[in-house]
Structure formats: structure tokens, C-alpha cells
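Q: Give me the 3D complex with adenosine monophosphate.
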Amino acid sequence: MSLTFDLHSHTTISDGMLSPTELVAYAAKQGVDVLALTDHDDTGGLAIAAEEAKRWGLQFINGVEISVTWKKRTIHIVGLKINPEYPELKAGLAALRAGRNWRAEGMAASLDKAGIKGSLNGAYQYVNDGIIGRIHFARFLVESGVSKDTKAVFKKYLVKGKPGYFEHQWANLEEAIRWIVDSGGVAVLAHPGRYDLGRTNMLLLLEEFRALGGTAIEVVTGSHTGAHYVEFAKYAQMFSLKSSVGTDYHGKGVSFMEMGRLPALPNNCVPIWQDWPEALLTSTNVTKNNTA
Ligand code: AMP
Ligand code: MN
Ligand code: MN
Ligand code: MN
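A: Here is the predicted complex, encoded as C-alpha cells.
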């Protein structure tokens, strides 16, 4: 029986709804065999999740999703099999988190100008043990009746050109890939179908990503359509990049897809786990290993 991989997910350490222990338990119940936790710019959930994964007989992979500015656009680079203790990665992520705090102040100041008061404290009320992000502002704005739901609040306030959007400089692509790779991990371009790049820039991005040491792109991911699977499988082939799979799970009702429900990679893809020891185990002996 083939294994179910989910290599992109979030917890309350970033903008997910489940705690690291809850996420692992949920993944196990949904039939995931190999799970990576990839919180935004924060590795604070990994140790607890890894511990919990042992109890469930689930293979766990240390991950992170790094915010990057490339050609004035925000893109996300997922790091898998990272060492969260690697000093440069640790320092880089700490700087990104500090940047998130300044950005939050900027966002609150511009919302204030638009007549929405108290959003900084309001947003921090929704932060758990990790980063502050746009989701925490969204939750505050919905709770205080400014918008009816998260989707509406993003559209009206939290995206480029809207009052609560604050231009921010994240990591650059070269350093993000370097932190990941030097820590022992592999770099994955997250959800490329979500970047409004056009073909020319997508080709440039993939070229640069590969030249800098990137390994894979997400082909099957929660926010991709069937047409995206086909498109990005082709790009992966074109650039000899491997392919990754992940729900990008954030919680019930706030995710594109439930865990354990992703379709298989198209046949022309080389899975990122091709040479991973995790891929050698079958579901049966994962369970056996754990109970032994
Ligand atoms: P940030 O890194 O703080 O800018 O927040 C980005 C996160 O916000 C993404 O990872 C998503 O979880 C969430 N997000 C972005 N756009 C939307 C949207 N239109 N609706 C709901 N959530 C969104
Ligand atoms: Mn998110
Ligand atoms: Mn992302
Ligand atoms: Mn994500």
C-alpha cells in the first residue's frame, strides 16, 4: 500500500487553528503516514509535534514556511527536513518574526487611519505562542463586526491596495534557500499557482530557484486546481525539479482541503520523497515499528 504524504501544514504557532498535538492527532486519524509541519517563519511547534507523532506511529518531518520577497512580491519557500537548531536558520527566522511585529504596527496604524481603532491589541489577542500574521488581524476584524468573514476581510482590508495592507520586505530568495539547505534540509517552492506572475516571471523564478539550490515545487497542494497540477508538473519536468504534495492545512473550515484527501501526483512527476528513507516503509510496518 502506498503511503500518504502531507508535507505542508500549520498550527497555532503560526496561523492554524489546531495546536501541534491536535494537528498530529488529526493527521493520524485522517490516514496521513508522513507529515511535515511547516508553520510560517517559526519552528516552535516542531518538538511537541514530533513527540506526539511517535505516539501515533506517524513519520514526522521538521519543516518551516519562509516568507520571501522576490521582485517586490511575496512568495513562500517551504523547508523540509530542516534542523531548527541550525544557528543561521534560527537567526534568520527570528529576524523575520521581529519584522512581523513591526509590520503589525504598520498595519494597525493604517487601519487606524481608515477608522478602525485598536486592531494591534485586537490582533495580538488571537496570537498563541508564535508569530503574528494577517490572519490574526482578520480574526479581530471579523469578531468586531467590521467584515462578515475572513474571506471578505482579506479582500476589503488585508491585500495590496487596501487600508490594512502594509508593504513589507521579507527574506530574499537566496538567503531563505541557503538557511534551509545549510541546515540539512531541502527547499520547496510553495503553491506556485497562487503567485500572479505570468509565464515570463514564473520561468525566471524557477530558473533562479533551481540555480540557488531549490529541490522541488508543490504540484499538488490545497489551493491548486486540477489545471495547476498539470501546469506545474510540466514546469517541474522542464526544470528537473522534484514535486511535493501538501494540503497547506490551517484548520477545519479555513482550509481548501481536509487532510488525507489530496490526489496523487501526476505520473510525470518525481516525488520529493523518491530517495527518502520514509518512503521505504509501508503503512503496515510504520505501525509495527511504533508498537514494537
Ligand atoms: P501573512 O504571512 O501574515 O501575510 O499571512 C499570510 C496567510 O494569510 C496565508 O498563509 C494564509 O493563511 C492567509 N491568507 C492569505 N490570503 C487569504 C485569504 N484571501 N483568505 C484567507 N486567508 C488568507
Ligand atoms: Mn497561513
Ligand atoms: Mn503559503
Ligand atoms: Mn502554508
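A quick observation: Residues 10, 15, 40, 250 surround manganese (II) ion (ligand 2) (CB under 6 Å).
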